Amino acid sequence: MLTIPYFAEDKQGSSSLSLTEMVNTENPSVHDYNFSTRELELLEIMKKLSDKYLFKIFSREKNIKLFYENIDPKKFKNHIRPHIEKYMYACFNKLAKSPDIPIYYKGEKYSNLYKSDIISVYEEEVEPVFYFNLTQEGIDYSLKLKLSGEDLTITHKKPLVLTDSPCTLLIREKLYRIPSTDSKKFLPFFDKQYINVQARSVATYMDTFVSKAVKNNHVVASGFEIKEAQTKPTAIISLERDISQQPVLVLKYKYAHKEYLAHSQSGTLVQLQNQNNTYTFTKYKRSIEWENNIIEILRSIGLEAKMGANFLPVRTKNTQHSIYTLIDWLNKNITFLQEHNIKVIQKTLENKYFVGQYSCELKNEQGEDWFDLKMIVKVGEFQVPFIKMRKHIIIGKNEYVLPNGDIFIIPQEWFTQYGDILLYAEEKDDKIILNKMHYSLLETPSNRSHEKIKNISIENAAKVPSTLNAQLRPYQLQGFNWMHYLHENNFGGILADDMGLGKTLQTITLLLKIYETQGLRQSKPQAAAQMNLFEPSTIEGFNTSGLATSLIAMPTSLIHNWLNEFQKFAPSLKVYIYSGTKRLKSKEIGKIIRHYHVVLTSYGVLRNDIAYLMHYKFHYFILDESQYIKNPNSKIYEAISKIDCHKKMAITGTPIENSLTDLWAQMNFVNKGLLGNLNFFKRHFITPISKDNNEDQEEKLQNLIEPFVLRRTKEKVAKELPPINEQILYCDMTAEQRKIYESEKSGIRNELLQTLENGGMQKTTFLALQGLTRLRLLANHPKLVNPDFKGESGKFNIIVDNLDSITNKKHKILIFSSFVKDLELIEDILKQRKIKYSKLTGKTSNRQQVVDDFEAKEDYKVFLISLKAGGVGLNLISADYVFLLNPWWNPAAEAQAINRAHRIGQTKNVFVYRFISMDTIEEKIMKLQEHKSKLADTFINSNNPFKNMNENEIKELFS
């Protein structure tokens, strides 16, 4: 059946209408007919019933004829007929409100449209009335239409089904719309008044068909009761899995004894009771207002509706939904849900999870070296020793099985809050203990006592030793107080102040304080000669404090500097020099050094003589320029690890030279175990920070080391220092120099590319470093590669010009280079010009004399210094110019060089000139310096040099 619009002509005196033409919906005004708005709306609906429209939507055939010939019955039933009936019913709805538009029924056997076949649409949608009569023999069931006046029977009236679902019946020229049911329920009653259900099927029939009729339709009952009642509903959140097996929270409403999904359509709920074949139906009306209020409550605590009755916590940027996040949400909101009478259940999951209240209280009792962590976990009715959850938290396992078999999901915040603590804690006698050096892990960001350590007020500070021959600056006093605090609490530390701020003085002050406190005797100055094994054990003025001697290791070049500083600032401390070829090598060395307060030695001597030094237990073991032990696999690291001592301290201006491993090596020396073993440190910090830029791990590492590292920069604490004026002087190579440089670069690049193609990264790195050095030398002066070169160097000419200009104005210059041969070329120029100079390289034996000549004698204008030999331990404040002849990966090395002149005591402005050959490897090194300097800034506020070159960097470097 279809509704079809026609233009028709009513010929007077004729019983039929003349159908002139079907209305063309695409051009409805072809007959100059003025359509009403409602007629146009009807035409738009019926357009979707046209052959053309159905063909367009449902067919892949070439034309309409083939479409109708080849319609698949299943497709017609499931898709095409529902479409037709949907728009037919919409048509009837419009016609019910348009009595002025005539409707006619055309029988399929008639070619004309007869006026007597006019029909009308009943103005209201009607509902079926179900009549049930229950007797001992069974149930009689009939169906009528409920009209405004009386119920209409359809039996023997030859109803015609126009649409099946929703149902439309044509009964004696009247069209009835029945939206709440389909035509199948009416068909049996076209020919008979009722259907009989036998007694044996009554129970099932009542529970199914009758129950559904009572729920959805008007029912007239005889032999059983239908009543309406009020009930207080309950909201339920059920933890289940959806159709894709993902965990969800399903919202249900329980009325009386039945549960209904949220957002389900039924507005009426029916409950059937059968007592001795006496049936009672109770109808409950759902409270839509209450149900909507429950949804708003859930939204207010972070749930959002998904498909149907499914809900999930609102997802943040970094969260993914899992069973753990759902349980976590339930646990956090369980009290709120209970307060609002919302019940939580679990029925369909494979495991039963704990949902309820839990708590974890951390208390710690402080022992001498350890914190005894008392952690009490309460999960519902259970009290669980936290030690049983330790491994779960360390390995990231969320599920903990309670004694009753329920699974407790360990909250994610416990992993964050206690993960680091448990990572470093140990189990001992069924207790969890934490070394005191990890105390920062027990503190919250808002209450960190270690942040106060570095800001100890002068009023609460340790008293400066009365015998110290120096006035400490405020920041030096703070540094002394910090070291003294660590000393009192048996911690080690790294004093990492900027170069030139007096790290040596602060350390001497600490040692003087320690020995003075223990009864350091005042005495007359002693002879400078050192003791031997046969001298008496007690000498007036030597170590009678009762404390063991302290050992300080350093580069060889700094030993005399330390000795001078002790003699200058703390002459009451007696110092023994354990160095030189004539030193005593014996396991009995302790019989000598025990008479002294301090022993000074070099890293090389310590490494070679560890077999002797390891037999004496020192009080303090202090490393100066502690970056020397940055390689934990080196012989020197192995040696310093064997020294027996009570306490440790490290001093350095550059705690990180290459990588975070440098930091680990030094921190593991002063506080063994603070950062775990090296493999642990690499896994938890080096890889996440260096490769993944993990900010969380950066923060954790900062918090761990912060109490034990003190670094101040000159810009912040030595504001009285004159400014540094830095300038880069870019130098053009000479034509000859450029030709040699480009030829060499081309050869090195070709060799490197060939090696890279063959897959030898290790060999490539070696060749790159070799080639790099060669190009750096050529960028300075080709003579450094080929002594027979007769031409000039562009950079060298500019250096000499500036050298002449500055020395003529009575300034003093420090000239640093990575290459001794470079300095030798400058030395030749100085000799030619009869300019007096000092020179310090690794071969210099009279180091102190060389320094004294430059500092004390006005006619010494230039100090030539190799970067490696002279980067540390020099106080050269008579100079106010610094020349850096060639850049290197580590900006910190250059900073150290500059700080030979720019340090406490300097009164003149310091001018720094960096000489860079243009279009050479030197420019690229400068860029890499900037690119590679972030890491140590993050932790120590220092600089990180170039470390590992990858393949692209190698190619770029030599491009």
TrEMBL record:
Annotated protein name in UniProt: N-formylmethionyl-tRNA deformylase
Helicase ATP-binding domain: residues covered: 484-673
Single GO molecular function: ATP binding
Helicase C-terminal domain: residues covered: 798-954
PANTHER family from the UniProt entry: DNA EXCISION REPAIR PROTEIN ERCC-6-RELATED, SNF2/RAD54 FAMILY MEMBER
Gene3D superfamilies registered for this protein in UniProt: P-loop containing nucleotide triphosphate hydrolases (3.40.50.300), Tandem AAA-ATPase domain (3.40.50.10810)
UniProt keyword list: Hydrolase
Organism: Saccharicrinis fermentans DSM 9555 = JCM 21142
InterPro entries, sorted: Helicase_ATP-bd, Helicase_C-like, P-loop_NTPase, SNF2-like_sf, SNF2/RAD54-like_C, SNF2_N, SNF2_RAD54_helicase_repair
